[in-house]
Amino acid sequence: MDASDEFTGTMAVRAPHRFDADRLALWLEANVPGTRGPVTVEQFKGGQSNPTFLVTDATGRRLVLRRKPPGKLLPSAHAVDREFRIIAALAATDVPVARAHALCLDEAIVGTAFYIMDYVEGRVFWEPTLPGLAPAERRAIYDALNDVIARLHRVDYAALGLGDFGRPGNYVRRQIDRWTRQYRASETERIEAMDRLIDWLPENVPADEETRIVHGDYRLDNVIFDPRAPRVLAVLDWELSTLGNPLGDFAYHMMSWRLGRDAYRGLKGQDLAALGIPTEEEYRRLYCERTGRRDLPHWDFYIAYNMFRLAAILQGIMGRVVEGTAANLRARDSGARARAIAEAGWRQVEALRRDR
């Protein structure tokens, strides 16, 4: 069984995430025009953070409910209200998102805050090597991914009323501080490489003044593709979106080129030419062309920073495993990868220091 089998589709709602479907149906009838109860609810297999559900009403209409998980949560995590705000705003741009319908902050409905958006039918790819596709199809998929993140980083956030969606400047420094605190709050074992990154990164942050909308978790499996064409229909999982440094956001997306299967689902060690997948240099060049840049300065720093950040995210997943509130059945496997990602990040730093 490959990752697509394990993460694609729905399953019965897991016991920790169950709620009263009849109560939800009444709320939907009052807040999402055209919806009629009763409703059936299934849980999506994929996703590690905010539990996500397929809701089908009496007419056959399908909607998606995305909620905060139950239990004790880390400060500022699982911000479904921010997710709702950003996808509602981006509907007016050329960045593809699902249509947002309603936000509910009343925890009496399903137990935690949630929002409702359209269900988007399409393909989700979990393996970066895109098994089963022809080389030309793989190249077209990656070209579409590149195009969409470039579109996002060209959006005028102030024109969308998002001037207060984050603080301009010092994004990476603030992110290092935030994820250090999140990591410490969910730490289940000592990871020496993570301790070293926590010490080194704040002292080596490049000047960081450019501000754009950043997705925060833009990767292959957070995108829905057209079933028949290499076209992105919707970008998902905006929980970590804010105003920040687009180079840091793009470097997070490109970590796959520096990580292998031993650490994460990555492209390192693959024959990219034979697969039809752009090399790291080719993919960076495409992004530069689409965003009007000459180069991507401090690239290796941003890669190391993002490996630290991903390790902190994975440690948060492991923390939820220990607490019994993890959203995904494979959460323990994902959380266990924190050490390998942190060690990969420290290797990036060591290489960077040697090259100076």
Note down, in words, how this protein is organized:
This protein has 356 residues and is an alpha+beta fold. The chain folds into two domains: 3-118, Phosphorylase Kinase, domain 1 (2-Layer Sandwich); 135-355, Alpha-Beta Complex (Aminoglycoside 3'-phosphotransferase, Chain: A, domain 2). Helices cover 40% and strands 12% of the residues. It has twelve helices and ten strands. The protein has helices at 3-7, 21-31, 80-90, 135-154, 171-186, 192-200, 246-253, 272-275, 280-291, 299-323, 331-335, 338-355, and strands at residues 10-11, 40-44, 52-56, 62-67, 100-104, 114-118, 212-214, 223-225, 232-235, 242-244. The chain has a six-stranded antiparallel beta sheet with strand order 1-2-3-4-6-5, with helices on one face. A two-stranded antiparallel sheet has the order 7-10. Strands 8-9 form a two-stranded antiparallel ribbon. A hairpin with a 6-residue loop joins β8 and β9 (232-235). α10 (299-323) runs antiparallel to α12. The longest helix has 25 residues, at 299-323. The N and C termini lie far apart (44 Å). The model has no long low-confidence stretch (mean pLDDT 90).
